[in-house]
Amino acid sequence: MAEVPPPTRPGARPRQTSGDRGPAAGRGACGPVRTEAGFSIAVAHGPEALETADTVIVAPTHRLGGIAEEGVLRAPLAQALARIRPGARTVSICTGAFVLAAAGLLDGRPATTHWAEAEHFRRLFPRVRFDAGVLIVDDGDLLSSAGAAAGVDVCLHLVRRDHGSALANQVARRCIVPPWRDGGQAQYIERPVPEPTTATTAPTRACALERLDRPLSLGELAAYARMSVRTVTRRFRDEAGVTPGQWLTAQRVEVAKRLLETSDLPIGLVADRAGFGSANSLRQHMRELVGVSPDAYRRTFHTSAAHTSATGGRAAAGV
């Protein structure tokens, strides 16, 4: 997926072409829609399709016109978005968040967009609980993602949420992309280029991934990285966007999820192999990071549950 340039800056005129009317989603007629890349997309349905859609994705564009300048939707686009049925899942990619915010769908809700547009977005939509430091925001029926490449992340997240990590990992491998990117936008924001001699925590993180089943202290990580505790903590924040402890917990949760999906091990043994030490610790961290208990996650995503869904049953997260 190619990165789409960010929306027009305040006070500037957006690039216009003959007949430009902003995002094409607001147009009532079907037919070919010319893209900014010079080719056309055949649109088979009009806005009425939104009335029955389970998931609606708003793609990014820099030709937002009045949306980026004043936070106002053109009437056809506002009418199209009003057709989205209650309970449908709505997703924005990159600057698509401007469209959802202008429609009022993000008022009082958490959301993100490209870091380069963070301050502009905050000024334009003060009612949105904006977070510029993450790649994805999942607020149930409303999801948003950072840059256009984070659109791949949010789509994989949807696959993972609906069908489990195993299938999401297969899709990621087919697309030749990582199934999950550590940290948030902090690692992509433009900063001064570090000196070539600056140490990195990448080898330390790789080593830690091979030892998640046992306790790992911050002192051990610092010793392996040949850095002070203070330095390794700072480098983790710079490179992964989180503290070493937060990173370790997230990786252990991923190990636990895989074990819950693919094995019948008791919860206590899953916790032990993931490095949590106790079932209670695993339950606490899974509720914090995944939103469900280990038992609930297993019922939804265990291989047998996926088989039941594929043969006519309904897995909870896929309904």
Structure report:
The chain is of the alpha/beta class. The N terminus and C terminus are likely disordered. It is built from 14 helices and eight strands.
Using brief descriptors, characterize the structure shown.
single chain, 319 residues, alpha/beta, four-stranded mixed sheet, two-stranded antiparallel ribbon, 14 helices, 8 strands, 8% strand, disordered N terminus, disordered C terminus
Quick overview:
By secondary structure, this protein is an alpha/beta fold. It has helices at residues 66-70, 75-81, 96-102, 118-124, 150-163, 165-175, 202-209, 218-225, 229-240, 244-262, 267-274, 279-289, 294-301, 303-310, and strands spanning 31-34, 40-43, 55-58, 89-92, 110-111, 129-130, 136-138, 142-145.
